Amino acid sequence: MAQSNWKVGLPLTLVTIFMWATLPIALKGLLGHISPGTATWYRFAGAALLAGLYYGQARALNLRPLFSRILLPFTLLAVIGLLVNYLAYASGLNYITPGAAQMVIQLAPLLLLISSVLWLGESFSLRQWGGVALVVIGLLLFFNQRLEELTSGAGGDYLLGLGYILIAAVTWAVYGFFQKKILSRATPQDLLVVIYIAGTLCFLPMADPMKVSHLGWLEWALLAFLTANTLIAYGAFSKALANWEASSVSATLSLVPVITLLLSTLISSIWPDYIAVEPLNWISWAGAVAVVAGSAFAAISSGRHPSKPLGSDKKNR
Fold first, then answer.
1. Spans of all domains in the chain
2. CA distance 249 to 247
3. DSSP-derived 3-state class of residue 31
4. Helices (DSSP H) in 183-281: which residue ranges?
């Protein structure tokens, strides 16, 4: 078993936090100029090209196990899960703020934990269930100023956006669940390269690649950042899991929505026309803190079965 090395795992987790916290802010700014399908296609196409060049040159890929008779069904489900996650998340950002999207997407790791308990037989302590309850309460507090609007049916577009983000959360949990079943026989980068290639092919029919010819320098910068984000975030995330306990990585990543809220508020105060921010009162901020705390509690196991880094049962290549 690989030893836990927080001096490597923590910086990689912080890179992942920055990438995931800034992603919806950058994506929201780009979606005013191109469609979610086009943005998603460019993210996958760029990531496929860069990952293919990097891993191909290093001869670090072995895709054959993913298409074996045993793993192929899991590979297909993991690919479909992450493809739908990307498109649903981008579509949801058309209707809601980055901060709201990041709060709701916190349900994704919780759904993965619960599915692992139900179908993989993993243990789940009372404290972790308390964390799940705290996340739900925190979400209700966070959206306290919109509850009447949402329950009355008046917030049609906003409700649609929340629905898309919920789909994104569920499908990310599907991806994570089947990735767990794959990792005993294949590496995370093998699966991600297959996903990047599949996304490039699947999203091409709904994309308008020539639309970017009308973009300004800022939009081009955002598109380049989002492409790099796709590659760097998941690369850092996988490496962090290989060097640090999965529970520690997950608990630290729970800070992502608060970082997004703070950055959104800061950017909006400096540049009001760039993105809209979620209306927040002290109850909303208390809800955000509850979501973060609940996510952290849910991620940390009881300690009776020490968590090992994901993928630590096989050699890193």
1. 6-299
2. 5
3. coil
4. 188-202, 217-243, 246-253, 256-270
